[in-house]
Amino acid sequence: MAEKKFNVAVAGATGAVGNQMIRCLEEMNFPVQSLKLLASHRSVGRTLRFKGELVPVEELKEDSFKGLDIALFSAGGGTSQTFAPFAAKDGCVVVDNSSAWRMDPEVPLVVPEVNPHAIAQHTNKGIIANPNCSTIQMVVALSPIHKKYGIKRIVVSTYQAVSGTGKKAIDELFDQTRAMINFLDYQTKVYPHRIAFNCLPHIDSFLDNGYTKEEMKMVNETRKILEDDTIGVTATTVRVPVFFGHSEAVNVETKDPVSASEVRALLEEAPGVKVMDDPQQNLYPLATDAAGTDLTLVGRIRADESISNGINMWVVSDNVRKGAATNAVQIAQVLAKEYL
Ligand code: A2P
């Protein structure tokens, strides 16, 4: 029987994640019948390459989704909030990379290695949410531990690349770095402070409780994906002058006792994970190892000697790929294969 093919759209196609979504559809050989590329009116007239063909960029409109099966959205929360329901109304299932729908109880929030069964709930609203980049890589590494030993509490600090903010932020780090090493004045447009040669403990906006939205995304999304509201999660999210690849120092306290070697053995077998953990050989995951791959890299696995059931680890992944585009296309693959 011929393979079923799908009419697909990418909304936000000209952005950093949208562009990677197009690459992922191609690389992962997604069964595309037709591809529609959508962005703002500013991008009309541009073309982008897909499988050797130049595809025109069209303006995202309410009626853009007629006759389509799946739309991958990465055009900002406001755009998803407005346009995803129009897609759903026309029978086109949305996989949305923004935070607009993630905590809606009727919308599944999915990491295919962790909770693929939740994709069945796409019928509720016609929308599936792609989690926050920092959350995705953390739950890929922690889900096997939670399933076997039970997680009581997570303390995480992130070191996040500028590509998570989008194309303008990539340019800002590049321009500021170049200006500084040439002793020239630099401009600060995307971030409130200079990002070159600096670390900003500030991702997304601040909330009344003193945390940032990014930090609270990690708290709430982790519980939703791991399907356990009893897990304690606390996060500090930091923007660092790295182009691609988020790194995380993760401390986890388990219900049942677990040793570092047991965690290492468990993660060696875990889907989507690569253990890189030989400190004597200076082997531990780096952002430069993760960039361009779809794996979540884990190293520095060691006991937290300050508590009885604690483990520390270092978790790294490409935030634009597994943290966004790859995860969205993996969701679309399961959706296409099992539900459409
Ligand atoms: P455009 O390039 O036409 O502005 P990034 O996160 O890398 O900055 O990319 C954001 C993406 O979202 C771009 O493709 C951008 O298109 C798109 N986008 C932003 N606002 C809108 C909008 N109101 N309607 C459609 N697409 C939008």
Concise description?
The protein has 340 residues and is of the alpha/beta class.
The kinds of small molecule bound in this structure are: adenosine-2'-5'-diphosphate
Number of helical segments with 4 or more residues: 9
Which structural class fits the helix and strand makeup?
alpha/beta
Helicity, in percent?
25-40%
Unreliable residue stretches: none
| Secondary structure tally: strands | 13
Mean pLDDT: 97
Shape: globular
Strand line-up of the largest beta sheet: 3-4-2-1-5-6-7
Give the H and E element order: EHEEEEHEHEHEHHEEHEHEEH
Q: Termini, distance in Å?
A: 16 Å
| Strand percent estimate | 15-25%
The description of the largest β-sheet is: 7 strands, mixed
Rounded Rg: 20 Å
Distinctive features:
binds adenosine-2'-5'-diphosphate, 31% helix, 13 strands, alpha/beta, six-stranded mixed sheet, seven-stranded mixed sheet
Task: Explain the overall architecture.
The chain has 340 residues and is α/β, with parallel strands linked by helices. Helix content is 31%, strand content 24%. It is built from 9 helices and 13 strands. Strands 3-4-2-1-5-6-7 form a 7-stranded mixed beta sheet, with helices on both faces. Strands 9-8-10-13-12-11 form a 6-stranded mixed beta sheet. The two termini are 16 Å apart. The mean pLDDT is 97. The structure holds adenosine-2'-5'-diphosphate.
